[in-house]
Structure of THUMP domain-containing protein:
Amino acid sequence: MLCFCAPYTSHMKLIIKFFPEITIKTRQVRKRFVSQLKSNLRLLMAAIDSQAKVNGSWDSLQVVLGPDPELQARAIERLCNTPGIAHFLEVHDYPLGTLDELAELCIQNVGQQLTGRRFGIRCKRVGNHPFSSQEVSAHIGQILMQRCHAAGVSLKDPDVWIKLEIRDQRVWLIQARHEGMGGFPLGTMEPVLSLLSGGFDSTVASYQMLQRGLLPHFIFFNLGGRAHELGVRQVAHYLWERYAASHRLRFISVPFEGVVAQLLENVENSQMGVVLKRMMLRAANRIAERLDLDALVTGEAIAQVASQTLPNLAVIDQVSDLLVLRPLITTSKTDIIDTARRIGTDAFSSTMPEYCGVISVNPSIRSRPAQVAEAEATFDFSVLEAAIQAAHYADCCDLENDLEEGSVVELVEEALVGQVVLDIRASDEQDARPLHLSGIEVVSMPFYTLGSRFAALDPARAYLLYCEKGIMSQLHAQYLLDAGHDNIRVLRLRKR
């Protein structure tokens, strides 16, 4: 089915429709939500197109973009991923004349598409006019049938839809409709601290906070060294850049290797998982209070692992003075992975090691407070305090730069004859922007295949991992180095 459209050759007007729950709020709350969304959009659109303008108030917002097609495409993608938007419409905006003049506009925009096809007309009208929406549709339909050689009219399954909105003395001819992510505008709800491991669960839980208008600052408990942190920083940066770039989000990394060492040495095996989560919540509470945040967020779901049974969650929560939110508490793993795939984080999470799950061999599923207190009696809490004090704070907007600092992976700016460049970008990225290096062998090996394919390569050759930003390549190079492959470097091509 086609909707009439025109190429992006001129200024573009987009009509923003609010998430339905916004429209049923009280007048004061709705006004606040719309004002926040308008402020967010002005920041986001200005970062893309200096000519962009955002107007409107109660019923909808209007975004007007400059004529650059590339900037228009980027703005559309950004709006699709901005909380608070149910959908938005690309429109051609005209002054309202007579119905005959409106029919002429339709012929100019869509007339050539109607020959031999069935069409349908939908008209929405706001304001006082001497005609009804049905009369507009009938009048225009009759003229189009007479002049455009259409096959007929169908309101159930037309080949071409003609959609228009009449608002007072303006008429919008709708070119396309884009779906938004829904939810509430960022900044309308309170900030929270989200425990982020980089896996499917914590990443989706953080996204759901964003979708509901909360600002999730991220806290990461590093159990796996630099390689683990590289991956989680990439996830945090992705969530911020794609869904929350209108606001400042923090990323806090807490070195937890010492805490894990204490657990392995002093805590009875069956209680390790619960005690580790309690240590994480204790640290998260301290840091949340320091940042004046109102709640903690975790990706836990009922009975997904041993520490997530109801008795164990109750014991874990006892150490938290703050509300602990668990948006995924009744969500299946399949649904969580489906959401990760939809929001674009599945590729990150699928390659992230699950460090938390490897500590306890025979975990208890019904820990009692007395048992846990006894297990923690010999724990040296000065180690936890040292970890909290050593936490590193960064802004999510700076995470890409931070990833380049302190990496133990060797970076090179050019490949030498005899070396092999492994292009680890996803297949669609490789197809869109192929990598060609004169005299250098380039092998396509998407990052999610490295684990199964790299071992089969010639160990006598030198390999350079390549991705456009260099982040994913650093992460996987570190994994390979840790696995004993010392013939790995990262290729960072100089920008031209």
